[in-house]
Amino acid sequence: MNSAPCVKNFSRRRALIVTDDTATLDRLCVSLGRVGVLAEAAQLQSEGIDLRDGNLCTERDILFLDGDLNLVIHVPSYEKTAVPLIPIIGMVGIEAPSRLERLFAYGATAFIKKPIYAGAVFPSLFMSINGHLQRLQLTRYQHKQDMRRGMRRYVMKAVLMIMEEKNLTDEEAYDCLRRTSMNMQTSIEDLCKQMVEQESDTSMGVNAC
C-alpha cells in the first residue's frame, strides 16, 4: 500500500469552526485567510450539531472543534467505522484529560492551543489533513482486505468446481480462474462469486481455460 500524497497547499479549502468563543473565531478567521482557507462558523444549537446532512465536501472541508464546548457533534464517518470523513483539529483551552479524550474520540488528528496564535495554524492544518488522509487510506485498504477475505470461500468453491469439471489440480484450476478473470476484466473474487451463485454457469467463459 502506497502512502497518501502529502498536502502542503490548503488554498480554497473551507474550515468549519465549532466554538462559542468569539475571540478564537476571529483569530482563526484571520489566520486561515492568510493561507487561503475560507473560514465559516457553525451554527450552534443546544441539542448539538449534526454535520451528516450531506453539505460537507470531504475533499475540501476541515473541522475545527472547540474542546471546551459540551455539545454532541455528529460527524460523517467512513462506512461502519468511527473514522471521520473530514480532518478534525481539536482546539484545546482547558487541558483536562476528559476534554482531550473527547476530541480524540471525535477523530481529531491535530490539536491547537487556545488562545490561537497565527504561527500555530499552518502546522495544525498540515498535521491534521495529512494525518487524516493516511488514516482514511489505511481504513479503506483494511476495508478492501476484509471484503476480499470474505470472498475467499467463493474462490475455494470455484476452484473445487473447476477441478471436478476439468480434472485439474488445484493450482491448474486457480490459474484457469485467474486467466478467465483477466480476460473478463474483473477480479477473481467477483468471478468466483458469480460462478458459485450461478452454479458454475458454463456461459461465463471458464471453458476457455
Provide an overview of this structure:
With 209 residues, the chain is of the alpha/beta class. The protein has two domains: 14-141, Rossmann fold (3-Layer(aba) Sandwich), CATH 3.40.50; 148-208, Arc Repressor Mutant, subunit A, CATH 1.10.10. Helices cover 46% and strands 13% of the residues. The protein contains five helices and seven strands, in the order βαβββββαβααα. The chain has helices at residues 22-34, 97-106, 118-166, 170-183, 188-197, and strands spanning 14-18, 38-41, 49-50, 61-66, 73-74, 88-92, 110-113. Strands 2-1-4-6-7 form a five-stranded parallel β-sheet, with helices on both faces. A two-stranded parallel sheet has the order 3-5. Helix 3 crosses helix 4, helix 3 packs across helix 5 and helix 4 (170-183) crosses helix 5 (188-197). It starts with 13 loop residues before the first strand and ends in a 12-residue tail after the last helix. The mean pLDDT is 88.
